[in-house]
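Hey, I'm writing a tutorial for new members on how sequence and structure tokens pair up, and I'd like a real worked example in the thread rather than a made-up one. If someone can provide the structure for the chain below, I'll link this post from the tutorial.
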Amino acid sequence: MEVNEALEEYRRYTYADYCSWDDDKRWELIDGVPYEMSAPNRWHQKISMQLGRLIGNFLVGKPCDVYAAPFDVRLNADTYDDTVVQPDLLVVCDKSKLDDKGCIGAPDMVIEILSPSTAKHDRQLKFNKYLLSGVREYWIIDPDSDTINVYILKNGEYIAHAYSKDATIPVHVLEGFAIDMTEVFAE
């Protein structure tokens, strides 16, 4: 390996680098390390669209908004600016966190829908980034096992709640709202 190749292997990228990448691929950048994202399958998209519709309908006339991937979330824009994720869905209630390119800082809620290629990434690497950045509610939906894990931020830690696909799940960051998962998982 050449010296330049070795240096490139250990290079950490920033949001400015991320914005300069001129290809048709989707990327996430976590602690300066780029991760290529594959296209989601049909079932993943169906779940995402159903959730987005339900959340969006609830938010009509309210101060929060729901966004779907691809939508850049810069979790540490105020420091290193080397982490840009694209959650499947997110809710932002503080409009000052939004700009034309996405969200700057932690959204109030993040939903990730697992696929075989992202499961470990979403459960470990992104889990820790969301926790440390202050995402107040994090959902991990596993279509293969029909389970939903909900993590509520309390005193700097996530409190875990596990649900099945036939549960009605309260959304803690959106008072008075719960999602009937049978609607989400309906064929």
